[in-house]
Structures are given as C-alpha cells and as structure tokens.
Amino acid sequence: MKKQFDVINSRAPRLDAPDKAAGRAVYAADLNRPGQLYGAILQSPLAHARILDIDVSRAERLPGVKAVITAQEVGLTRYGVSPARYDETLFARDKVRYVGDEIAAVAAVDLETALEALALIQVDFEELPPVFDPHQAMAAGAPQLHEDYPRNICAEVHQEFGDVAAAFKDCDLIHNHKFVNKRQDAAFLEPHACLAEYDLSGHLTLFTSTQVPHYVQRTVAMVTGLPVGRVRVVKPYVGGGFGPKAEATPLEMSSCFLSMKTGRPVKMSYTREQVFLHSRARHRFFHEMTTGVNKDGTILALDHQCLLDGGAYSSFGIATVYYAGSLLGGPYRLPNMKYDGWRVYTNKPACGAQRGHGGVAARACFEQQLDIIAEQLGLDPIELRLKNIMSTGDVTCNELNMSSLGMRECIEAVRKGSNWNKKKGRLPQGKGIGMACGFFVSGAGYPIYRSDTYHSTVVIKVAEDGGTVTVQTGSAEIGQGSDTTMAMIAAETLGIPLSDVRVVSGDTDLSVDLGAYSSRQTLMTGHAAKEAAEEVKRQILEVLAEELGLDPARLDIRRGRIKIKGPPVDITPLRIRYLREHRGWSNQPEGDELCFREAARLAYLAKGTIVGTGKYKPPPLGGRFKGATVGTSPAYGCSAQVVEVSVDLETGQVFVEAMTDAHDCGLAINRTSVEGQMEGSLCMGLGEALFEEVKFDEQGRVVNPSLGEYHIPTALDMPKVKSIIVESNEPNGPFGAKEVGEGAIMPTIPAIINAVYDAAGVRINELPLTPERVLMALKEAQKKPGQVKGGKTKAHRPPRRN
Amino acid sequence: MKKHPVSFTLNGQTVELLTAPNRTLLQVLREDLGLTGTKHGCGLGDCGACTVLLDDEPVNSCLILAVQVHGREVTTIEGLADGDRLHPLQEAFIQKGAIQCGFCTPGMLLSAKALLDRKKRPGEEEIRRALSGNLCRCTGYQKIVEAVEDAAKTMRTKKGAAS
What's the whole-model pTM score? Predict the structure, then answer.
C-alpha cells in the first residue's frame, strides 16, 4: 500500500514558472551594475602552436580599455576538474593547444571597444604540427600536447572483474561489435554569461551561469589566490546546463581577474560560437565489445575496449573514461567484465561531462549488441533482457549496489505501453520497432576533489510571524526543477502547504552543495532538506508541547494544522496570544486546530529565530579497486524504451514516429517534472542519434559552431512521447526518491538503432544516422544479400530491400 | 555613429528613442529599454529565444534593426499578460509543466500567441510547425505542445462565454 502524501508525488506547478512565463526571471546576462565594464577573451586561431611573444601595448593604449591581462598578470596556477589532472592554466603562455585556447582578456567601457582591443593584441606563433585523430595521437612520434603525458594518454583504465577469458570458453555464442558516436554539443539555449564584482573590502562576488557554484567558488579561490571565504558565487536562473556548465570556465575567471584589477564590475559572455569552442560536452567514443552468452541467452562475459577523443585538456575526462566502462556493470547480471579504456588528448576543444556522462555511447553499443544476439538465438529482444536483468538487492560485478531497481517493471510497462507484442516482427517493410534499457547513478558517491565534505547542507529558516518557511541551499536550479523539489520535500516534512515555502538557492553564502551534476540533487540535497525540515518541526513542536504541557509525541503537523492526539486540548489561550500580536491583520488563524504559524510564532517567541539545518554525505560505497569511486552511487535509476521508426528506403531518412519510455525514479517527488526530464532526455538522445555532430576542418576549426548548422531537434523532429513513471521505493533516497535527469537518455540511441534495423535490415555502427549513412548501408546490404550485418555476425534475415 | 529617431508602439505604449542604425531590436530592447525578458541565445536567428511580435507576426529580434520598427507595433514577453492577469498561454505553460530552464519560454510563448491569434483550433502538427523556429533543449516539446493545445481550448471557451 502506497503511502499518502500531501505535497510530494503530485503535479504541483513549479515555483519559478510564473516568473519565467512573464519574462521576469533573471539570468546572468540580464544583470547590470553601475559602472560595469565589458570583458572579452582573445582565443587562439591555431590548433597547436608555440607562443613566441604577446604584445598587448597597442590594446592597452586604445581609449576605453581599462585592463588587459595575460598569463603574465594572472600567473600559471594549474586548475581543472579533477586535482589528479590539473592541466589547464587560465591563459596560455608557452603554447596553445586548440583553436579557441585562451591567451588574453580585456575589459573596456563597452563590448565594441573590448573586441577592438582584442584585435590589437599581437601574438607571434610558431606553428606546431597538430593531431586531431585520437588513434594517431597515441602512435609513436605523434605531436605531443602535454609534456607530462606521453603518447597523449590523458588517462587509462584497465579493469577486470571475474575471468573473462575463462568465461568465453563456456559461451555458446560470442559476438564482437564496434561502435562510434560523434562529438556532441550540449546546445543549451543560454550561452555562458557572468558578472564579477570585486568590492572595496576585498570580497569578490561572481554571478554566473553555472551548474556548480561550489566548485566554481573553489576554483576561482585557488586560481585568484583569494581565500574561499572572500569568494561568493551566485547562480541566477540558468538557461540549461546538461554537464558542460559543471566546471569553472575561463570566462568566469577572466571576469574575476579583470574586476580585481580594475575595481569595477566586469560583465562577460560567450558568443554561441565560443560555447562550441569551450565545449566540455560529449566525447567521441570508439567502442569495441565482445559479448559471450549461453544458448538460452544468459550473458556470461563482456570484453570491452574504448578510446575517447578527449580534446586538449582533461576537464571531466578521467571520470568519463571510467564511467564508459563501469556503467555497463548493470542493469543485466554480468559476472565477468573486462574493460580497457584510454582517453587521449587531441588538438580540439576539451570534452567533458554531458547528460548520461560517459555511458551513453557504451550503452548504445551494448544494447545494439544484445539485439543482435537475441536475433541470433531466435529470442525476442525483450525476453533476452528479462532473462538477464538485475532486481532490487543485486550487486554488479563492479560492486554497484542496486538498492532498488524497477527494471522488470520498466520493461513490462513499455512492452504494454507500446503494444510491442502486436508489432514486433509484424510491421511492414520500412517500419520498425526497437527497444533498449539503461541505468544511471543517482548522484556521484564521491566529490570531485578528495574530501570528507558534506555533499549537501541545507538551512531552513522560519519567518518570525510563522507564516513562511525559507529553504536556503547552495544547490543549483538549472531548469530541472530542483528548487520546487526541495520546497516540496520541505513542505511535506514540515506538514505545511507548498505555497508557504520559499526557496533561495544557488548561492555559496547559503550552504554547501556540490551542485547539479551526476543527477544528485533530488537524492542528496533532498536528504539535507528533509533533515533540516525535521529539525525545524522538532523545535516548533517541542515549544508547543511545553506551552500546552503535553508530551511532544502527541503532536504532529499536517496540511498546516497542528494535530493533537488523545484527549482534546484547549488552544484558546494560544490563539488569543497570536491574535493579539496581529491586531488589524486579515487572514487570521481560525478553526478548532492551531495553525502551523501559531505554533511557529510561539517557537520564535521562546527561542528566537527558528533555524533547522540538515546535511548529507553518502556512506562509503563501492569496491576497493582503482577507479571504484566512479559509478558508485547511493542509488540507481533505470529505464526502458521502445521506439518506432519509419525509414525511407529510397533516401535513407529516418523518422522517429513514437517513443514509449518507462523510468524508475523511486518515488516521484514531482510527477510533472519527472516526465519533463524523461521527455527532454529522449529529445536529446534523438538528436544525438539522428543528426548531431560537431564537425572540424583539417585545421581543427569547428565548421558548424551555430545552432543552425549544428542541428538539434525542433518540435517537428519529436514524436509524441508516452512517459510512464515507475516507482520503486529507494531505501537510500529521501521519501524513496532517486534520479531521473540522466538515466532516461541511456536507452534512446540504441532503441532507435534497433528500430532502424527492424525497419530496414541494416545495422548502423556509427552515429549520427544521417540519410547518407543509412542509404550507404542499404546499398551495401543490397550488394551482399544475407551477408554481414552488424560486426561479425551472420544475418539470419536477408535485408528487406532487394 | 549618427543616431536615428525611432518611434514605435511597444507593449501598447509609444516609445521614442534615438538609436544607431546598426543596433538590433534585441539590443535596444534588452540594453536600452531594460526589457530583459527577451533572450539572446545565438544572435543569428537560429534559436528563436529572442522572438517578439512585430505587427502580430513572430520575428527574431536579433535579425531586425531597431530603425526598421519605426511606426510599427512590437510586443515582447513583458506585454503578454494583461496587467497582473497572465495570458491563458502563460497559465497553461505554468500548469502543464512546459517550462524548465525558461530561456526559450518568452519566445515560445510569443510564437504560440501568434498562432492562436490566427487559428483557434490548431492541430498538433500546426502547433509543432508554428513552434519549430523556437528551439528548446529541456522539454522535448511535449508539454509545450500540450500547453498550447490547452490554452487554445481555454481561449475558445472564454470567447464562447463572452459572446
């Protein structure tokens, strides 16, 4: 029997929606300060070159220019995402490593002057041979990007769980398969923007479009040399992040240095082209997987190699190369798994974390492989998966604990929701249906820097009149709805209506929170918010119990009313007290029960401002092997999808016609927001599957750095999505809740690829599925009827088109 | 650069200003008039975040020069509500969960308004077509389309009740 809730598990409209609908929500680029300057960054026009000389004198002399900074002014403090790979400096001094590498920044009275000044900076380069292909970059004699990393290997992973070679000997079928995706851009609608303000007492405030105020605060403090306590990072509303805004940017640090140097506020933003150059988005992954199974479809072993094209710097890349392996540990029982991964530097913008971090291409490869194996064994792809799925309580071979896992429920939900049984194998030529599954972490088990820090702290403060409760958190509302989630958790815990809760967030002054990445906030910030609300409730009820001379155990709060168990209690004296303090006010408390605000006011009168604090840190998780921290999480969300496509066999064009998605998010705090994350994930996955690709010319320049040329899905590209929420009860989540923000993207690409195979009889092993690529595959299949389809597997079914 | 006098109707009010001929309507709205509800997403007319209504037609304000709107009527997101009363489209976007990060929302709402002003009962395909110049990376468009359908229904009912 499911528990009844008053606030959570509903479809409450988001707290920020009215302001956003009215155009009143303030984003970083909307901020202005009196006397502000405008900053701009000089970026390298060359992919790989030695810097011989930088002459800023003409720029400095330009009227209106207030400061020019280079590595000489700001120093060469190394920073990055993981302390194990601090390989960036704010500005290049000795050499540049990609088209877009930062060399200098300027602050001027207006943007036009700042841009004019950039053109006056003279940089003498000595061109070096660049390397763009990660395979070539690893070869002997290839140009080296970083002295410390021979063969350009930024990070490598070698793991084996069980004994893969021995297991292969017992397999009835072994399938080998290669797969490659393309570099993607996050294409959030809001380009990065920020405004730094260094005040006369030596405090720096940075307003910025970020997912991670806390990490930005630390990086800015480290690079500028200011104590953490003198750096405040404030996140206004953010126009989408999806991963690339989860690290400190040169934009932010430039504005900070320029403000410190000029003593004036400095506003900066990236152009859309600069967003592409800064990148930090999805890597390009070259996967090779060999999977062994028994005749009955039981998966026995996976041997997996992966090469990541990292770009010029590490960014999140160490985590990415680990995730690319570890996220195959589930959601199927896989007793033996070997993984060898390499992330390699190339002279291109750095890749980083993006929705489904590290696992999306791996999942696409593996789920396609399962489809091939199912066909070979004459099994329905759903039956093959059902045979192998994990369930609640299972632990993967790499020690990820599925403390709740509604995988079977998800599969059954999409089977029914899509009418799979009526469609699979029965659709006409050119129409196809495909499915896939996936899972994802519900918050990284460990912070990015090694630390015993709390992952989240939350402060809840009650207004002195008792009427409004304010949740203060450093967590980051970036569009996913976390402010509303925290408000709902606080309201449910306190027993008050959502309308009485206000959220102030995204400010390092408020609390410590690691931010919006790895789908962590609902679980982690949610835990801290719940604990803070419990603390507030306890304080209020204790005072009330004392006033009434009752055992606090007799008291509770529900829907804004005080519930008193046992014999009736005369509340009149307390009510009169409240009314006396609020003479002439409208909307006075009434009825037989005390209101929350009457009790909260009493608590204030007894103890001063009522504040509750909460904190959360996951317990030690996962295995002891090298890299065990990446992939561990207190909980895992999972999902299954069915996609229906039609393929134009004359042109190779793929149309996605229907998508059915089921996601296990634990208890859904806000059902509308959960669906929103599911639908958005599917849309992003569809774009990556069908058309998204950041392209480069032979000199390493991005050739499609605009949203017109880099095509993301429009309303016309998306079919209707059927979203089905599956609710397991996650023991490690607040009220049983866990992630939905990233896991939902996992099955999308392979489900589309598998549907295309069902429609057209061709296996596509390279993204995106452009008409050209699909048509070439169709032509190839025509030449060799009944021959190779998808790696080294013999096709059981001839191509449909002859 | 020589500035030109421009006079136009902005959200029902007459506005007169002097502006350089190379300034876009988007720059004038955001930087000179402080109407930051209109968003800058690309500056190239690709994303639609800067959509405003020019004589009731949706346009990318980053591609229109301010001098071009002389004598014409401009509606921005700040002018969509009737005082404190939100437009049915705004209400529907809030209720249906059509808003996530909110950066595409102002442009999306104005494109939707232009559609509903000329078509009382648009089909799903028509709605998707009308919104196809407004990119959204968060929602997958599903709840946006549902919200427009919902608002159309509300607006028909209200009209019906009034007549």
Answer: 0.96
